[in-house]
Structure formats: structure tokens, C-alpha cells
Amino acid sequence: MNDTSTRRYRPRTRLIHAGQRRSRFGETSEAIYLTQGFVYPDAEAAAARFKGDLPEGEEGFIYARYGNPTVAMFEDRIAALEEAEAAFATASGMAAVNAALMCQLKAGDHVVSARALFGSCSYIIETLLPRFGIAVTMVDGTDLTQWQGAVRPETRTCFLETPSNPTLEIIDLAAVAGIVHSVGATLVVDNVFATPMFQRPLELGADIVVYSATKHIDGQGRCLGGVVLGTERFIRDEFEPYVKHTGPALSPFNAWVMLKGLETLALRAHAQTDGAEALVRWLDGAAGLSQVIYPGLASHPQHDLAAAQMERPGTMLALEIADGQAGAFRFLNALRLIRISNNLGDAKSLVTHPTTTTHQRLTEEARLGLGITPGLVRLSVGLEDPEDLREDLDSALAAV
Ligand SMILES: *Cc1c(COP(=O)(O)O)cnc(C)c1O
Q: 335: domain CATH number?
């Protein structure tokens, strides 16, 4: 059964217990219901279930594209963590972003988005939406006057991520939510970099939060997944019909991996942030580096805002290596422990060169406008001993 009573416990406890549905066998760990369909005791029960006519306290699963008990456990657990009214899981983070936007939009609508985005999010917003007659305005997310100037009566929804990928810009969530709501639009926030442990966009005024569960929620590099959180009305009336009928359902097996990931999310997010903070202390001012970007550093342009809206600065940092792309490549190729990969939020520390990987699709001008210089590398700090990471970084910097 859906255990909403766990909401009286603190977040770390909710991560372990919320949403659990025990079968009559009384299993300790959540069961994987690897089933596509469900059988009904009689024809009347099937008819009632399709009508949504359920006896009090009963859950009516119909087909795994619509819902599944293991997936429901994952949805309820993350909804309880963030005190969201409802959540709906998807097959990947991009399925979550796409559905969260598409389910709200029609031709003639207008969308405002921050420019600093994960590459596939910018493809949906800047390339796909205009194909369907949706007007799009891109703004510098940190500049509130640009948000104010961009919203208009036909603005239907707005999108941003903070901290942004890869330059870790911080956007004022409460202020942007106020601007967006002044024209009756909704605010969708991609909260992947902050993780649900360190930033609560719904509490700050966002209407919808999206996650790539592939990142910190799995946290061990195994499965793709995504999830969308919002009001009961948004999830049931707008989001659910869109995903039910278009099909980006999360596999029950992947949902089970994500459930197990949530049980250790608090420990991992804090330990990885401890590691990031230790590395930043060592790296700030190190030879071979022209800049260290981390929201927890006093030199970060939105340091005060980050301190106010995030519980901790997170597991991601960016380094500007001296000598541009050649220096960055020498640095990456000299690393032994930290591996080159565009994934993030993993137990293993991973480093990537955005100019030639995640952001290579952009023009050079667009990249430089976002602060993505040829020397920039993004580091996702894992769970290794920070001393080993520091030694690896030290020797790679010496090779620059
Ligand atoms: C990875 C990522 C996504 C996409 O998630 P997938 O699970 O890879 O589809 C979206 N937004 C951000 C910020 C991400 O890091």
C-alpha cells in the first residue's frame, strides 16, 4: 500500500521507506513486478478498473505503460522526499523533459527558456518546439530583466536548469517563478545538478520538477530513468494522458534500481559533495588552472544566491585549464583514476570536455557566449577517497 504516513518522517527516512508496497509474502526489499499486464477477478472488476472505480484503498493497475507497482513505489518515494503531490516516472530524463513540456503546449503558445541547458534539452526547445508553431525566447537565465522582458500573455511554460551544465550558473528560482506566474505560465525546473537533496524547486515556487534519474538517483551508472513531479492536477490531468498514450514508460526493473538508489542518495550526495569541496580547496589557485568554477566558492558570481537557495553546492565542478583545448586534452589524457565520460552523478569520478563532446553541436560563438571555452573541463566527483582524486588531478595538472 501507498504509505503516505511516512511524510511525517524526515527526508532521509522517507528515502528508505516511502512508497513501499509489501506483498502478502512480507518481503523486506521491494519486489520487482516484472509484468506488462494485470488480470482481473471477473469482468465487472475489469470494467470498474477501466472506469477508475476502485474500492477505497485499492490500486487499479491495468497495463505497465500506465503504471506498475514497482514503478509506483519509486514515484511515491521521490514524491514523498520532495513533498510533491504527485510524481510520474519515465524511461529517461529526456523523456521526462520532453513530456513535461509537450503535454502543456500547442501551436501558438510561447515558451521562455534559459540559454544554458543540457544539449538535448536545448534541441527540444530550440529545434523541435518551433517546428510545431511554438514560439521560443531564449534568455540569460541569471538576468532577471531578460525574463521580465521575455514573458508575454501567450507564454505557457518556462524552462531552466540550475546549476546549469557545464558552467554551473545559478538562477534565482523564487524570482523567476514570480515573473513566470505574473503572466499565468508554469515554471519547469531541471533539478539534476542540485539533486533532490540540496535544492527544492517546488518550495521556491516552481510548478514542475524534472529529473534524469540516470544521474545521482541511480548513482552507480546502471540504468536510464526519469521522473516528473508536480501537483496532483498537473500529473493526472496533463502529464499522465500524454505519457500513457505516447509510451515512454519506465521499466519495472529500472524502477527497482532507482528505488535502491534512493535508499543511499543522501549518503552519496553528501559524501560526493564533501569530496568536491575538498578538491576545490586544493585546486583553487593551483598551477595549470586559470579558473575553478564551483557554487560554493566565494569567487562564484552567484555564490550568495547559491548559498541561499541550495542546501549544499553539489557534486559538480568545472575547471578552466591553461593553454586551451591542447592543455585540456593533455590534462584529460594524463588522468589515471578519473575517467573520461559524459555521464555524471556516478560513484566513479568522471570528467568531460564540453567543447568537443556534449556541446560540440553548438557554434563556437554560442559556446563562448555560455562560457564554454576550449580549456573548460567538467568534473563529476564520485565516492573515491578525495586524496586519491587529488593525487590524480595533481599529476594531470603537472602534465598540462
Ligand atoms: C543527463 C541529463 C538529462 C537527460 O537525462 P537522460 O536520462 O540521459 O535522458 C537532462 N538534463 C540534465 C541536466 C542532465 O544532466
A: 3.90.1150.10
In degrees and rounded to multiples of 5, residue 52 shows phi and psi of 80, 20
Atom of ligand 1 nearest to the CA of 215: 1
If asked whether residues 363 and 304 sit together in one domain, one would say yes
> Does one domain contain both 246 and 279?
no
Instruction: Give one word for 30, left, alpha or beta, with left for phi > 0 and alpha for psi -120 to 50.
Output: beta
On whether both 136 and 34 belong to a single domain, the answer is yes
Contact 99, 248 (CB under 8 A): yes
pLDDT tens, position by position, 93-139: 999 999 999 999 999 999 999 999 988 999 999 999 999 999 999 99
Which ligand 1 atom sits nearest the alpha carbon of residue 96?
9
Residue 195 Cα, ligand 1 centroid: separation in angstroms? Answer: 12
Ligand 1 centroid to residue 172 C-alpha, Å = 21
- Residue 282 and residue 252 share a domain: no
Q: Are 321 and 371 in contact (CB under 8 A)?
A: no
Work out how many domains the chain is built from and give that number.
Answer: 2
Ligand 1 atom 8: residue of nearest CA: 93
> Which residue's alpha carbon is at the smallest distance from atom 15 of ligand 1?
192
Q: Do 129 and 235 lie in a common domain?
A: yes
Name the DSSP letter for residue 4: G
Taking the whole predicted model, whether its pTM rises above 0.85 is answered as yes
Closest atom of ligand 1 to 165 CA is: 13
Domain span holding position 330 = 266-399
Where is the domain boundary, 231, 261, 291? 261
Residues with CB under 6 A from ligand 1: 92-94, 97, 118, 120-121, 161, 165, 190, 192, 212, 214-215, 224, 226
Kindly state whether residues 330 and 366 are assigned to the same domain: yes
pLDDT of res. 1: 43
